[in-house]
Amino acid sequence: MPYYCKGTNAGSDDEDEVLHNGCKSVDCELSNEITQETMMGACNLDSKSKRILFNSLSREELKQLIQKIELAYNLHCTDKFQLSMKHPSACLKWISADIDRRIPYQRKHIVQQASMLGNMESFGLLQRTKICDVSGLKESLDEESDPVFIEFGAGRGYLSHMLADCYNIQNIMLIERRSYKFKADRTLREKAAIELKRVRIDIEDLYLKGMNALRDHHYIAFSKHLCGHATDLTLRCCRPDLASQSICHLDGIAIATCCHHICQWRPYVNKQFFKKLGFSKKEFHILTWLTSGAVAGIKSNSDNSANQSNLDLFQTEVNDEHDTQSFAKTENSTTDPEEQFHGVSLWLTSLVDRAELGRKCKQLLDVGRLYWLQESGMSAELITYVSADITPENTLLLAKPVK
Question: What count of Cα atoms within 13 Å lies in the side-chain half-sphere of residue 227?
């Protein structure tokens, strides 16, 4: 397959990283910071390994890390993340559940998808498509100008289904590494004008310029809840800084980020951002692990768990599946915290609010991505596209080439 290139989007540990123009396979190297037994695969640290790093901190190191996070947040995050909840007229039939009964319907997901598409429209990523208004009329635009919409981490493809149904998008590509039952593909293909292609591949290995279906085409990359470092793999895959040299042309990016606790150093696109702020590689991994507090805090409040000990959060492993996080207590809650966690978790909860700190860590990771896109020649924004009571994973990253 000309679009398969092992590890081409994997990134590196280099100080000064340059994206290459062409297929270049990359093999992962083991980190020297922790042993191979604590690694998940060759490159990625799992939650247990990150917790080991967290528990290795002294009280003074923990205080210094919190101070770094607070300072970085105050410098870079306070003027971003504007709330923009959209209910576009094009999506009214989905919002009102007036859709094919074969399509699974959960209102909270429809509200998220509608707001995401509405913000894409406001940002200009849907202007060039034929938009259906509430009366069913269509704008007449040159079909050849319509971009291919590529959904990364597409899952069953129901975001693309809504996009096609509401905005009359006719050329869609679904990228997904897993096999799913009950996909949207069947009902999508019943639409006569739809050109649909599903590609089963890991984003880490996807070389877009090798896809014949994209040759000499414009495309828009989008995704809802692209877990952890899959967002960084996608940004690398699109290579916005090389867009002008490409045989396929990037028109825009819209990614709803999530699961920041599984972000990884190697693929993260803007390591320089954290290095300039004084964060080490170890501290970066700890920061990603701390992000789980933001999601756990929201879940705890919604479940009326106000009396749960602050320590409970750090006695859990966070499920890597988005929107289905589980936060169970450890089996033995009477274990001496000093013995089990070396006191670090107790120190943390005595110093800061865990949920607020987790939220700040999440936003720092997304701001680094924002800056990377801007440095790559893109106009980019971060939007809070739904309220936290709908989902705490409510950040939308938007980007398009500067005209």
Answer: 17
DSSP string over 241-304: GGGGG-SSEEEEEEEEEE-GGG--TTT-TTHHHHHHTT--HHHHHHHHHHTHHHHHHHHHHHTT
pLDDT for 193-238, tens place per residue?
889 999 999 999 999 989 999 998 999 999 998 999 999 999 999 9
Amino acid letter for position 5: C
With 0-12 / 13-18 / 19 or more C-beta atoms within 10 angstroms meaning exposed / middle / buried, residue 265 is buried
- Number of Cβ atoms within 10 Å of the Cβ of 181: 5
pLDDT at res. 293: 87
Q: Which residues pair with 83 in a beta bridge?
A: 384
- For residues 246 and 239, the answer to whether their CB atoms sit within 8 Å is yes
Work out whether the CA dihedral 60, 62, 65, 66 comes out positive or negative: negative
Alpha-carbon 237 to chain mean position = 14
Fold topology of 82-264+365-401: Rossmann fold (3.40.50)
Q: How many CB atoms lie within 10 A of CB 298?
A: 20
Q: Is 369 exposed, middle or buried (0-12, 13-18, 19+ CB in 10 A)?
A: buried
Q: What is this structure's pTM? A: 0.82
Q: What are phi and psi of 127, to 5 degrees?
A: -65, -30
Per domain, the residue ranges of the chain are 36-79+278-360, 82-264+365-401
Specify whether the CB–CB gap between 356 and 296 falls below 8 A.
no
Task: Give the span between the Cα atoms of 287 and 65, in whole angstroms.
Answer: 9
What's phi and psi for 348, nearest 5 deg? -60, -50
157, burial (CB in 10 Å: exposed 0-12, middle 13-18, buried 19+):
buried
* 345-403 tens-digit pLDDT: 788 877 888 999 999 999 999 999 999 999 999 999 999 999 999 999 999 999 999 97
Separation in Å, CA 24 to CA 205, 231, 301 = 10, 20, 47
| Tokens, residue 68 | 């770094």
Q: Token match 């290095």: residue?
A: 275
Say if CB 225 and CB 256 are below 8 A apart. Answer: yes
